[in-house]
């Protein structure tokens, strides 16, 4: 019985050794192409002076630098705290009086408010990645003599031209 089992095992072992293995067709090689898409958005830095001293004859200025703006887009700087009269108020140092000021976009001579930008930059305005535009600050009321100050708040964004 042992001889019979040993013989069967030898035959099975020999049969498994003699089986020919065939390689499958190599499907991992080949060539092709893919389209790659991306979008490079406008980029820029905006600089507005922290203090504008009208007493020393300064006017407002906004500088855009390191700028690349897409065709058909512009960077608009808007004043966000205009009051009902369309400007900002400066308060006397003693806190009693106020002077109203209008902010004027010097490029188009329009009053800057929530709907009209203080300044606007398009791709054509920027030479070598930098440009400066100016705005005027005009007092439209007179107050008691003395020093006045206030804060202009602003926002900016790059939007498609209308």
What's the short version?
The protein has 1 helix and 10 strands; from the N terminus they run αββββββββββ. The chain is mainly beta.
Task: Please write out the topology.
Layout: H1 2-17, E1 43-47, E2 60-68, E3 73-79, E4 88-92, E5 98-105, E6 110-111, E7 119-122, E8 131-139, E9 148-149, E10 154-160
Antiparallel strand pairs: 1-2, 2-8, 3-7, 3-10, 4-5, 4-9, 5-6, 5-8
Number of helices: 1
Helix vs. strand class: mainly beta
Distance between the termini: 98 Å
Q: What about the largest sheet?
A: 7 strands, antiparallel
Runs with pLDDT <50, length 5+?
none
Task: Walk me through this protein's architecture.
- With 162 residues, this protein is mainly beta.
- Helix content is 10%, strand content 36%.
- Strands 1, 2, 4, 5, 6, 8 and 9 form a seven-stranded antiparallel beta sheet that branches.
- The longest helix has 16 residues, at 2-17.
Features:
162 residues; mainly beta; seven-stranded antiparallel beta sheet; three-stranded antiparallel beta sheet; 1 helix; 10% helix
